[in-house]
Amino acid sequence: MPPRSSIDQLPPEILAAAERMWASRRFTLSEMVERINAMAPPEPISRSALGRKTRDWDEELREIKAARELARQWKTSVADDPDGDIGSVVGEQLNVMALRTVKALVADSEAVDLKTLANAARVGRDLAVADKVRADRDAQVRSIAAPLEVIDAFARRLTAAVAGAAPELVEALLAVLEPVAEDLAKELG
Questions:
Q1: Which has the closest alpha carbon to 33: 48, 20, 13?
Q2: Domain coordinates in residue numbering, the chain
Q3: Which of 28, 34, 48, 173 has a 20 to 30 A CA-CA distance from 187?
Q4: Residue 176: pLDDT band by 50, 70, 90 thresholds?
């Protein structure tokens, strides 16, 4: 096993500052070395050590971007609505799986496990089916709830309108509307 990088041996707060400088893309390598050494690390860092570390960070960033793109492609193929609740969960799971897959492809020492890819596809398909069932159920609930809300609003307005009416008129309205209400109750279950 190769020795640990002098950059990896920096105190966490100095390493985090170095990563932030790298991520900002506003500093040259020499400026970063100067600023990091100004933070008084246990051992001064060299430009070459930081250069190697930034190349590692660049490679990790490329891997993450490749994994995200792969996950986006998988996510798009998983469901018609990739931004739904289940699609989002699938997307996050696939981001992790895609990152592992890309890392395996990059690190020639580890072969890509086709079983892992097959499992990812199966999980995506199963979750897409679950998302479709949920969407269908929600649509059915909305199709029932909307008419019930209209009927409820109508009943409140009718009650207010006939509040001062003659009892004969109220009886006549009830005789007409009660059978309609019973039929609707049977239809809506």
A1: 48
A2: 1-45, 46-188
A3: 173
A4: confident
The H-assigned helical ranges of 11-46 are 12-24, 29-38
For CA atoms 135, 138, 143, 144, the dihedral sign is positive
Looking at residue 109, the DSSP 8-state letter turns out to be: T
- CA-nearest of 4, 107, 16, 12 to 49 is 4
Q: How far is CA 36 from the centre of its chain?
A: 36
**Alpha-carbon span 11 to 120, nearest angstrom:** 38
pLDDT digits (tens, 9 = 90+) for 30-59: 999 999 999 999 899 999 999 999 999 999
pLDDT digits (tens, 9 = 90+) for 87-130: 666 666 766 776 676 666 666 555 556 676 666 667 667 766 76
Residue 47 CA to residue 34 CA, distance in Å, equals 9
Angle made by CA atoms 182, 187, 189, in degrees to the nearest 5: 90
